[in-house]
Amino acid sequence: MRKIFYLAAVLTLILSSAATSPSLAQDQKETGTITGHVKLNGKPAAGITIIVTQSVSDVRKTVEQMFSRPAPVKAVTDSDGFYRVEGLAPGKYDVEPASPTMVVSEDNPDEIAVAEGSTTENIDFALSPGGVITGRITDADGRPVIGEIISVNSFGRPTGSAGLDSMVGDNLRMYATDDRGIYRIYGLNPGSYIVSAGKQSNMMSVFSQRPKRVQTFYPSVTDETRAKPVQVNAGAEATGIDIQLSLNDKGFTITGRVVDAEKNTPIANAMIAYSKVRRVTGVKSNDPDGDTDVSVDIGDVAAFGGLGAFTSTNDKGEFKFASVLPGSYKLEATSLAPFASGGGSQFYADPVTFEVAASNVEKLDIKVHRGCSINGIVVVESGGQQDSLDRYGQLMLMAMVTNSSSNIPVSPGNCLVGADGSFRIGGLRPGKVTIRPYAIGGKQLGVVRVERNGVDVKEDFEIQPDEEVSGLRVVMTLSAGIVRGRVVFAGGPAPPNARLEVRARSATAESTDVPDFFNNKQTSVDPKGNFSLEGLAPGTYIIEAFGVATGSRPQTLSATQTVIVTNERPVDVELTIDLRSKDRNK
What we know:
5% of the residues lie in helices and 48% in strands. It is mostly beta strands. A hairpin with a 2-residue loop joins strand 34 (445-452) and strand 35 (455-457).
């Protein structure tokens, strides 16, 4: 259920952002600077363009850039390979050399924090010549296939993943065939790759009306186990990687209805999505009533990667999908009410699994149940006084529900908050509810407390079957807290192949397993061990560094520290990972 919820929530954000036309203006602050060196094959590289863009590691910035993408800041390296980028507002940035034919060392940081009036130094890049894969894509009759997206995955990486990270933006064009059916993908790291065609691997493919084809791997086989890896060497070109797509490119039709489970009446305007699943033994189901051997949504491995398509039901509750290829699938449904009125869904649905073999699948019924609901009012406090909601843009509330006994996520919900602060979230399963705010185009907020009929309740509160909870008062405050610091090692030097992340989670919340898609406070640790977590609401947090060092003796790495965060000043911490712990080796 998480995938269709995330898709629904993202669509809500897009529609709401377009409607409210959020202002991106920020308070004037002293700017910062990023400097560093670029080397090519170990020698200073002159004339390399460095591009610096605002980080889009959170959903709000992603949505904003759909409508108002800020221009990147550029600099060019001098004869010593040195660059300097100035005039950067405080925040996080992506820094990369504009050298698409080159390979950048994996040791480079993904995200750079710039503080007010400071210079972030030694953001260096090591380049080397990349490899090339080129070939031709034809249909079953030998005719060139134009505009076909090519998927290139490192050998051994699941093909349900999105492929190479560079397969976004302008770079997407080199993954598509030209009018001759020819493709040429460059700037590849040395190694072995699995090349395939016939399946778009980006999120926007769910919107595509183009008939789906059978995913076909080089050398023209539909069984991935028979795919031949393509070897790529630095600065070399692998040619003749041709693929002829399978004859079976039409797929099958899936039809069905969405009906009320009790009355068997049709449900109109329900949003339906299907995703591919695979059977895995020994994995616990997200359904509290499910068994141990379950169908696992491949899309959970890579966000939206397994989502096939979505549609909505007509007045008779009917839906239809065309061009569905053979495989195992799961159907899910949610209400479109949040987009129409901001009032939230009225129901939750039982997911339906089905198999596509060699024929159409008809008369699939998705049964929906009247859900629980919560309603009340949102207020914002600033300096102990109630603040105006207008300062924070359009507010959205997310309700994450987990099963009370198993603590497994079972039912998310969301709604837009009215101008007067009123809200209603419906269609929830019974369980433990956690409320999270999200400000669209405004400053971010955090929940201080939740009151029910004037009495404080826990951050996670229970909702019973068919219950309509009213009288909630959700008190919020500005989330401007910052935790910054370093990760250090005791008992030895930092493992050279370690990859570390740092996250902040509330020390007062009962549940730590609730997905927090829009308020996840997590960031990467740079090669020097530095990190910065921003946008935290005042409160007590557990700051955790975690990761894995691969090699002949893999190690799990972790360290925690509890801190108190305020909006007034940043909190500085040092997290120590002790390499001498006996239980760290696996």
